[in-house]
Design a protein that fits this description.
By secondary structure, this protein is of the alpha+beta class. The chain has one domain. Helices cover about 20% and strands about 30% of the residues. The protein is built from two helices and six strands. Strands 4-1-2-3-6-5 form a six-stranded mixed sheet, with helices on one face. The N and C termini lie close together (about 10 Å).
Length: about 100
């Protein structure tokens, strides 16, 4: 089973408009794989989420947070012990650079 995660930011409480970036994909048995954007490392993503007061949501939609930033960091660190390898950042976190929708 796999789950795509997104960061919601610039959320307007009045009209519920927001911006969203694909954060990455968690597949059972694989490393958490980040979506490579201008955020090219795990630390870049964490800084971005903090600076934008981002909310972590899943692909099921809506703007209801599915986990805290701390829970997300724990999930990623736990998954780094798994075996799938993609492009790795300087700290060994898995990234894929893909234009379009992830499945």
């Amino acid at each position: 089973m796999a789950t795509n995660y997104y960061v919601v930011y610039n959320l307007c409480k009045c009209c519920e408009r927001y911006d969203k970036l694909h954060l990455g994909k968690d597949c059972y048995g694989w490393k958490f794989t980040f979506n490579g954007t201008e955020n090219e490392t795990f630390k870049d993503w964490i800084k971005f989420i903090k600076s934008e007061n981002g909310i972590i949501i899943s692909e099921s939609g809506g703007t209801k947070p599915v986990m805290t930033l701390k829970q997300f960091q724990e999930l990623v660190k736990k998954r780094q012990r798994n075996s799938r390898e993609c492009k790795l950042d300087k700290e060994g976190y898995s990234f894929e650079f893909y234009d379009g929708e992830w499945s």
